[in-house]
Amino acid sequence: xxxxxxxxxxxxxxxxxxxxxxxxxxxxxxxxxxxxxxxxxxxxxxxxxxxxxxxxxxxxxxxxxxxxxxxxxxx
Length: 75
Known about the structure:
Elements: E1 2-4, H1 6-17, H2 23-30, H3 34-42, H4 50-60, H5 64-67, E2 68-70
Antiparallel strand pairs: 1-2
């Protein structure tokens, strides 16, 4: 299963910028819907599109490999 490390990147960005970043702010900046971001954040194994991953990579200034981690189903 692929895991999207959205919460970790959001926490890191919040820490670097010393402010709280809301899902709505990310939605506004990326053009992604808030429900999509909420599902990515809260549903383990949520399947998404490469367009969504691209928008998140642009927002977090990272590469896809930084945003995705492969985990075994047993974990």
